[in-house]
Amino acid sequence: MDKLRNKYIPLLSIVAVSIIVAGCGVDYALPEEYLSDGELLSESMDDAASKLVGTPSLTMGGPYALMNLDEADEEYSILYNRFEDALSDAMGEAEVGVAVGDEEDGSDSVKYRLLECRVLNEKSSRGKVKRVGRTIAHIRIFHSDEMVWAGEVVGTFENEVPKGVVSKLADERITQIGPQAPEKGKNPFIEPLLVTGITGALIYLFAVSAQ
Predict the structure, then answer these.
(1) What domains lie within the chain, and their CATH numbers?
(2) Residue 70 has pLDDT above 80, yes or no
């Protein structure tokens, strides 16, 4: 019995090591609910586009030519192409016509610029991270040559994942649009409120000192 054990133990060890080594080379797929940067941004664009089609000025005209106000910036072409697709899909679902081709003269148009399109990672509970895709787009609606509406639409989409997989969800193909990542411990959604508050305080102090 001891002879058999001594004979097969080395063989079993070799098999076990082979299985472990082979397992290390396996690239396990992440669950579908762990959205990548690109998927999060796409969801936030869809949300922004759906809010735009609720604008009454849009439903009063058409078909619309879709025009990128940052057409020369190739760095963000992937995001702009995806946003235009989101606009086209949302307008189609709302039965708002989209013009085919690039001709603009005399036609209605929707002109857009992405002010922000980025993923924000916020610490959550139990070792998880809340990932927020956020799109802010400036929109101008024209009926012929007259601008009938201008404003911003904001789209967001949230997803919570374990902290350890965040780096695996990055999408290197996409150059995100927006401010630099906030410092650790700061809430990026509070930043605009702080800037607005500081600006208001400075204006007030200036007015008081001028009296």
Answers:
(1) 28-175 (3.30.160)
(2) yes
